[in-house]
Amino acid sequence: MQRFLKLSFLALLVFSVLVACSKPGASTEPKDEGKKEGEKTPPAQEETVAIEPEEGASLIMWDNADGEMEWAQYVAEEFTKKYDIPVEVQEVSHVDAAGKLETDGPAGLGADVFHAPHDHVGNMVSSGLILENMFPDEYKENFMEAAINGTSYTEDGESTLYGYPIAIETYALYYNKDLVEKPATTFEELFAQAKEFQKDSTDKDRKFGLMMEVGNYYYAHAFLGGYGGYIFGSDNTDPSDVGLNNEGAVKAGEFMRKYRNELLPLKNEDITADIISSFFNNNQLLYRISGPWDITNHKDAGINFGVAPLPKLDNGEVPTSFSGIKGYYVNAYSKYPKAATLLAQFATSEEMLAKRFEITGQIPPHKALLENDALKADEYAMAFLEQAQSAVPMPNIPEMQTVWDPMGKAFVSIWNEEVDVKEILDAAAQQVKDAVASQQK
User: Fold this and answer.
1) Is residue 32 part of a domain?
2) Residues 89 and 189 grouped into a single domain
3) For the chain, what percent of residues have pLDDT higher than 90?
4) Of 171, 138, 142, 177, the residue nearest 51 (C-alpha)
5) Domains in the chain, number
6) pLDDT digits (tens, 9 = 90+) for 267-279
7) Are 181 and 165 part of one and the same domain?
8) Residues 10 and 89 occupy one common structural domain
9) Which of 46, 173, 182, 304 is 20 to 30 A removed from 57 (C-alpha atoms)?
10) What DSSP string runs through 10-74?
């Protein structure tokens, strides 16, 4: 079914392009009324593929609540103004969209365009839920490499782009500007600052130098990757090669144990996101590791804080934080695949993504917008963007779902217990290998 839908859509797209090219002035780009007679259109515009949407098309788009919904509504209204195609925006969480589409899609009830995190791509492709992005060369030229890699899927050694990227996020180092004059650039420096700060800690006024969710593999992977560990081979596309217990991974585990022993003698269960936020908002914490989702939290608390890239490890490497790529995808069961593709393309235009940053503050992965004045003036966005240069997209193959639980438990054991680090990681890696083998039967 997926292959049939893809071939049918390709045939429709080729036909629509031929029709569009035969019409004078047909284009997905607005006309430049100020162009002088005889002046040539820039090559990038000449290469833009025009799509002729289906007659009578009307679309449904799914997106998150709050600011993201506000932006989606704006996109829908502007799209309708330009193409006279009505778009209904419905609130469906991006983490729930793929699961909802599995039942709604075949029944003809799902959204034509929907928002999903990139680590769902493998499952969506395997389930035949999404159509590929029909403009891969254009997107590879205009979008950050991490955004392209995250929304692509590799099968039989061939990578195919499916998503239309709308935002990139990762985590970095928050610091209290009233307590830290200049953020640490190495963990050696951070440990020294933290120990000095913690000297004044008392039972009534506890102080900590650095906090993070130590048992959450989403965060712990930064150290594993920074020391040379990896999840799967071939840039996380080969699940037959597991690197979760190699020499680098063991060094990461030993680093986490050193961090516990020297700075944070608490059980994993006592280091929750809420507890970390409370210490930071009460000026009892120098540093925390988190993502842009905590900016509003600390702003509302009135904390004078900054954000910086993660400090370098003792091997000179920056920890490889996970990056998440938010993107739009076109439902393979859409009645109007050409109109839906046009909407996804319109939503990820430079103009619409600039508006998205204005409304949501989320970093657009469009290369042209990295020089945007509003983005460059936002110190938080620029810090996360700098860390994103060292980040790796979370693996999006279905086998990644076998990793989270064993590796999360492994780092809890490394933190809470005195068991040998290599022994703990060997057991977790074997669990992953067994689960992958079971999936592939």
Assistant:
1) no
2) no
3) 85
4) 138
5) 2
6) 999 999 999 999 9
7) no
8) yes
9) 46
10) HHHHHHHHHHHHHSTT--SSPP-TTPPTTPPPPHHHHTPPP--PPTT--EEEEE-SHHHHHHHHH
Residues 367 and 427 in one domain: no
- Please, what's the b/e burial string for 367-391 (b: 16 or more CB within 10 A of its CB; e: otherwise)? eebeebeebeebebbebbbbbbebb
**Phi, psi of 425, deg, nearest 5:** -70, -35
Phi/psi for 65 (5° steps) reads -80, 180
| pLDDT band, residue 49 (cuts 50/70/90) | low
Q: Give domain status of residue 30, yes or no.
A: no
243 and 289: one domain? yes
CB-CB contact of 61 with 112 (8 Å): yes
Beta pairing partners, 115: 328
SS3 call for 326: strand
**Residue 425 in domain:** yes
Query: Are the beta carbons of 303 and 283 closer than 8 angstroms?
Result: yes
- Tell me the residue type at 368: A
**CA–CA dist 357, 295 (Å, integer):** 14
- Count of H-run helices and E-run strands, the chain: 19, 15
| 251 and 229 in a common domain | yes
Determine the Cα angle at 259 with ends 170 and 291, to 5°.
15
Domain extent at residue 330: 2-20+54-169+324-393
- Residue 289 has which token pair? 């590791």
Half-sphere exposure in the Cβ direction for 370 (13 Å, CA): 13
CATH number of residue 273's parent domain: 3.40.190.10
Distance CA 198, CA 172 (A): 22
Is 158 found in the same domain as 139? yes
Decide if 205 is inside a domain.
yes
Question: Are the C-beta atoms of 61 and 91 separated by less than 8 Å?
Answer: no
Question: Is residue 149 located within the same domain as residue 268?
Answer: no
* Its pTM surpasses 0.85: no
* Token pair recorded at residue 371: 């020089």
